[in-house]
Amino acid sequence: MFRVEQMKEWQGRVEPALRGAWHWWLAEMVSFVPARLRRWIASLRSRLLFVIDGSGPQLAYETGERRETLGRVDLKGDVAAAIRRVLAAATPRVGQARDLVICLPAERGLRTSVTLPLAAEANLDQVIGFEFERLVPFKKEEVYYAHRIAGRNKLARTLQIELTVVPRSEVEELLRDIRRAGLHVIGLEIAAGRPDSGASRIMFEGVDRAVAYPRARLALASIAALFMVLAVAAIAIPFAAALRTRESLSAEVAAARSQAEASLNLQKQIDAETQDRRFLITRRRDTPTVTELLDTITRLTPDDTWLTELQITGSEVHLVGASASATVLLGLVDQSPSFRDAAFRSSVTQDSRIGRERFDISAHIAPRSGK
After folding, report:
1. pLDDT digits (tens, 9 = 90+) for 12-51
2. Using an 8 Å Cβ cutoff, are 147 and 163 in contact?
3. Topology of domain 290-365, per CATH?
4. Strands of the 143-153 sheet, one edge to the other
5. Any alpha helices (H) in the chain, and if so which ranges?
6. Buried b (16+ CB within 10 A) or exposed e, 137-164
7. What top-level class would CATH report for the domain 33-212?
8. Angstrom distance (rounded) from CA 96 to CA 79
9. Over the stretch 124-161, which tens digit does the pLDDT of each residue have?
10. Do residues 124 and 153 lie in contact, with contact meaning Cβ atoms separated by under 8 Å?
């Protein structure tokens, strides 16, 4: 167990270092791209913004890292008409752009940090959806919200989640006015609350983040393909030289190989017979019995949890039932030394008849030795 804890601690120190090295390598690769080409790619990432800040509401056009104010909008008058006038004057610059993001100051959104079990990451959207009203003092249908992973604690097996919430009542009237102006609002952007954090983006339902900048994605894909071709060429040339050297040595190795293969086959037969004899003994010694597994599951299961089905198949166990909090039960199973890789097999559903969450959890059975 001590070695396992040491491995986890080592992993927690090494992973951030590897992540930093990866970002450094990407930055170095980007530095080889000519500045003019980088500016051209940035110009493809353009969008309309409705910005609300200390200087007053305004319509802006963002291209790459450059933001241009198109005109101010008075929220006390006819907002839709004012937006149409600003767009009409700015048409030569913005073209036919109609997708828009509303930018709000940090104080217009609620940011909160919540902790969830690490195993919840595989179904994070569903877990936050089911647990939403327990995490924040709002009903889900009354707000727009987004979440992001702020950190992972591999030792404690927990996730740190930053949840950003904006009440619908704060923006509903503005949304109606913007839509009456003929624009399509694709989401909200809430300014960063701290200098060391970024803005929070809430994309509306039905908007695909991956197609927000189609021209930029096409340009980046083309450049990435060019880099791949050059990288393959850089690898292929020395590989071809090594291949020629290998072929020249193959004839010399062939004679020695034929002699070694006879000895190797004999050794394999001996090892196979030995392994067959030890297999059953080792499996019986390392695999927990069904009685032990039942005892462990009984101890893990909270009083507010019911099991309607328990399957033990090979090295896996499946738990089906109802609980006051399926996420809590998943965390208990995942943290138990008797199980590994606990996860939901299907979506968690709320059973209003019994007031419980229906769950289907699977986990790998850990051997007694802990290996």
Report:
1. 556 666 766 766 665 666 566 665 555 545 555 678 888 8
2. yes
3. Gyrase A; domain 2 (3.30.1360)
4. 110-117, 158-167, 143-153
5. 2-31, 35-44, 79-94, 124-135, 168-180, 214-286, 290-300, 326-335
6. ebeeeebbbbbeeeebeeeeebbebbbb
7. alpha beta
8. 20
9. 889 888 888 888 888 989 999 988 888 888 888 898 99
10. no
